[in-house]
Write a structure and sequence with these properties.
CATH class of the largest domain: Alpha Beta
Shape: elongated
Number of helices: 4
CATH architecture of the largest domain: 2-Layer Sandwich
Radius of gyration: 20 Å
Number of strands: 9
Structural class: alpha+beta
Order of helices and strands: EHEEEHEHEEEEH
Helix content: 25-40%
Strand order of the largest sheet: 2-3-4-1-5-9-8-7-6
CATH topology of the largest domain: TATA-Binding Protein
Length: about 170
């Protein structure tokens, strides 16, 4: 499995004057949106709110989130908020994808896991399989993604959990 997106929410130690930050970051502010959207060169987006809260998304790891938000915080201090620091930052969602390497019989998978699975071919080509740590979306091709993971360290155990389930539903060709 490969991480595609890590979403974090957090809070700075102070409230922010977004009008002041617009000048420092040299970006326009959308008057219809209450936050300031910053696109970092690391291809990560940070959304800052006047309350001091933030959302960071698009990173491939938590370490990248930390680096980006430290950089954003540094620029906030340069804007005159000398006391600004990151008070908290936690993962709220991880999206990962993978390929099992063989085709899956989705009907068989659905029958074997009907309590936790949803398959509606006329609406969507994949099967949704709910686990206690995330939601898998599995396709006939063997490709899948998992979302709703709140702890990156759980990805390995999710992989170990899903492999036998997918192997039991391998298509016979």
């Amino acid at each position: 499995m490969e991480i595609q997106n890590v979403v974090c929410c957090g809070e700075f130690s102070c409230m922010l004057d977004l009008e002041k930050l617009v000048k420092v970051f040299h970006i326009p502010m959308n008057p219809k949106f209450p936050g300031l959207t910053i696109r970092h060169p690391a291809k990560v987006t940070a959304v800052l709110f006047g309350t001091g809260k933030f959302i960071c998304l698009g990173a491939k790891s938590y370490e990248i989130v930390q680096l980006v938000m430290k950089d954003v915080c540094h620029n906030i201090r340069k804007a005159g908020f000398a006391q600004a620091s990151i008070k908290k930052c936690s993962v709220t969602n991880v999206v990962a994808s993978g390929d099992i390497g063989f085709t899956i019989n989705l009907e068989k998978l659905w029958m074997q896991n009907s309590e936790n699975a949803m398959l509606e071919r006329e609406l969507f080509p994949g099967l949704h399989l709910t686990t206690k740590n995330g939601l898998f979306v599995i396709f006939h091709s063997g490709k899948f993604y998992v979302t709703g993971v709140k702890d990156i360290t759980k990805l390995d155990s999710l992989w170990e959990f899903i492999v036998p389930i997918l192997c039991a539903s391998k298509s016979v060709q």
